[in-house]
Amino acid sequence: MARIVVVKLGGSVITDKTKEFAYRQDVVSALAEEIAGSDVQTVVVHGGGSFGHSVAVKYGLASSSFTKSPEGVWQTRSAMFDLNSMVCRTMAESKLRPYPFSPFNILSFGSMKSSRLWLLGLLKLGLTPVTFGDVVLEKRGFTILSGDTIAFELSRILKPERCIFAMDVDGIHEKDSSVIIPEINYKKLSRLSFNSSQDATGGMRKKIQMAAKIAAMGVEVRFVSGYRRNEFAKALKGEDFYGTKIVR
């Protein structure tokens, strides 16, 4: 069976977060072409960027808080479905056969085995499953199910060869240093402190938390720039790359 890799496309990579609803088709196209040209079976999850994130912030939706605003919920979900449609269309133009699905599909099966068999079935048929950050209802109200958390859940279900985080930075560097850390143990990773510029919205910190949990399961995690398609391709295929490798 071909190798399986989970890829998280950061919202700050596939959209311009300085402008509302600004989709970066050229970036998604480049990354999709690298996926299509590899021998790797890929499951993709993408963030919300200037689509879901901008709407969620407007209505107070976040992964760390709750709201009961129906207006915010439907608008955020609508924005995410719009972005997912654009991503899948671009992937199809890049010779992939995307299968868009809400993360609730894998959560509703009730067992990891059923979810795994469903995803493996899609991959076996030559499809590329593509999901995204979404809004979930809990006892205290609605909250965001982040793409980073979904990447962890997919890794838990599939036990892939590796998990790639395509970001708007090259990797991880320690506080007061501009040098990228090439490899780090997940235990040491959780003890690092970061420059404020790396964690302006809490996004990097969330990635660190999820990456550490994924690596703790024995799945290698790679942080790489989504703007460097050649480095992304190397990271995807398990080759030496410029970025950060997180191991158990």
Protein architecture, described:
The protein is an alpha/beta fold and 248 residues long. It has a single domain (3-247), classed as Acetylglutamate kinase-like (Carbamate kinase). Helix content is 43%, strand content 21%. It contains 10 helices and 10 strands. It has helices spanning 11-14, 25-36, 49-58, 70-93, 104-107, 112-124, 147-158, 186-189, 203-216, 229-237, and strands spanning 3-9, 40-46, 98-100, 128-132, 134-138, 141-145, 162-167, 183-185, 220-225, 244-247. An 8-stranded mixed β-sheet has the order 3-4-2-1-7-9-10-8, with helices on both faces. Helix 2 (25-36) packs across helix 4 and helix 3 (49-58) packs antiparallel against helix 4 (70-93). The longest helix is centred in the N-terminal third of the chain and has 24 residues, at 70-93.
CATH class: Alpha Beta
Order of helices and strands: EHHEHHEHHEEEHEEHHEHE
The general outline is globular
Number of helices: 10
Helicity range of the residues? 40-55%
Beta percentage is 15-25%
Give me the CATH superfamily: Acetylglutamate kinase-like
Distance between the termini: 24 Å
Tell me the Rg in angstroms.
17 Å
Number of strands: 10
Structural class: alpha/beta
Spatial strand arrangement across the major sheet: 3-4-2-1-7-9-10-8
